[in-house]
# Entry
Amino acid sequence: MDNRNKEKENLEELAESLVYKGKNVWETVKEKEKEKIFALGEEYKDFLDKSKTEREAVREIVRAARERGFLNLKEVRDSNQLKPGTGFFDVYRDKAVILGVMGISELSRGIRLVGSHLDSPRLDLKPQPLYEKCDLALFKTHYYGGIKKYQWTAIPLALHGIVVLQDGRKIEVVIGEDGDDPVFTITDLLPHLAGEQNKRRLSEAIKGEELNVLVGSIPLKGEGYKEKVKLAVLERLHRTYGITEEDFISAELEMVPAGNARDIGFDRGLIGAYGQDDRICVFASLKAVFDIGIPEKTAFALFVDKEEIGSVGNTGMQSKILEETLQHLMEITEQEASIYKLLSCSQALSADVNAAVDPTWEDVMDKLNAAKLGYGVCLTKYTGARGKVDASDAHAEYVAEIRSLFNRNGIIWQTGELGKVDQGGGGTIAKYLANLNMEVIDCGMPLLSMHAPFEVSSKGDLYMGYKGFKAFLMDS
# Structure
């Protein structure tokens, strides 16, 4: 009996030293740290409520940066203003923003960068959205990013965005978030009459042209114009905002889920909200860059647009905004190193979310290589689809470097892929950072119900993401 116990002890000791086991955040951290986790969660929910569009997120980031003394880089002319520890920001077309903190080392030694994206799947209004049918007024929409269209019906929606009038005035619109505001919705068929609809494939249960938002029902009194409900909506918009129907053509108006971020579960360990892909990483990296003090290398938090549709456009990761900011920074500090040489000795984290194992739908995941809620920030060596198509595949040496960094700093982390091989896949901004010759790996928090109107994250993972990004930006 003693020999058998001895053998069991030896095996346990061997397993302890050789077998990789993930750690649950809640089972690992002490009570004092749990208080910090919940406090950070409250800050994050507030950020989500104020940042439902990319423009709103940029505004909130800039507001927080100014509050902490960060300088607008476009207004900096003297290198003496950019001493080590000085924070700065650079805004591009109100849809992308770069935050930085000057380091001790020269820029030619490279930078540390955490990049995330501000945009989320949503419903954009078409250039001419308003019409009347069956004595109801509706908005036509064009969905943005990858959504399950049926998830957007029969829920309260809010209208966010801007309208630029012919004279150049910019009108901001937010309707549906205040308790006294009306909300909007997309109607769906009642089950009693959905026989033909039920025969459709799930992906076609609601078609793109059926995502029409109900916005009005009371007609104007009088004669001489047929579409009285549509006209009533236009009259109200003109009275409140000065908008005419032609102004919709120069507008960016988005329908997003109405309501605030909420705690989930009896224990309040989870957060449910719209837009957590990728604003959970935006918030964590924003907090991290605020808290790093004076880094060895100049540290950047990069927030870009258009990731959900391919990182295109002049505010997406395929644009030249990062190179332009670096060029400006080098001119101010009178450094002559090549931008691309600088980038080639730089390191980056592509901060984007991954899919967590869903207990109801776990068959789509390779559970040995899948992330779980509550097990920390997730390192994703590669993304892509099928045979790693369109992936950025991090080099083993760099993975080891980040793994070692996290272990040294007590960061609870895990690894994960986006589903089984050939099951699906996806991409991030990592490949565009890699195209700049930077070392990069995907690193973010796992979510349930990704791209749904109500996504789910773990407060423990958020906290470990913040700690991980901070440790990375401070490391030399």
